[in-house]
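Appendix B. Worked example

We walk through a single record from start to finish. Start with the input: the chain for Tetratricopeptide repeat protein, Candidatus Nitrosarchaeum limnium BG20, length 165.
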Amino acid sequence: MRAELDRMLSQAYELCEDGNFLDALKLYDLILKKEPQNIVALLDKGVTLQNLGRLKQSIKYYDKVIHLDPRNIQALINKGASLHSSKKYHDAIHCYDLALKIDKKSPMALAYKGLSLGELGNLNDALKHFKKALSIEKDYDLASIGKDTVTKLLKSIQNQKSKTQ
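Next comes the structure step. The output line below is what the pipeline stores for this chain.
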């Protein structure tokens, strides 16, 4: 049975890679029918729902993973990303903070927290988080793009202040 579940998980993952999210969901449902607490299937189903824009449903699956494994950084970060996409930036930051308590050097948690801070207008804090993510993983595109964007915004704001003085 284990080999069969692993094969189904692999097949569902491949379907997602090919953009066949609805077919992947059917496979995840079959897996979860046989093994309701399969963390990989729960997490991947959450990601698949998130890719489909079904954010509330994806959060429910991330919560199931977190209930089974409170230290699952991927579930915390993915839940934060779904909350961010739902414009619930404070809730997203809470998820990233929980992930950072587990691994304070998670570049993904740092960069995603930077994105949410930026959306809240906390540009200096956002910049700090992007820089910290880049100090850990220098080629991290999300952090690099975020840092560049925030730097340009801060310069623009500074130029506006200079013009009005």
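Two observations about the output. The radius of gyration is 19 Å. Residues 141-164 form the longest helix (24 residues).
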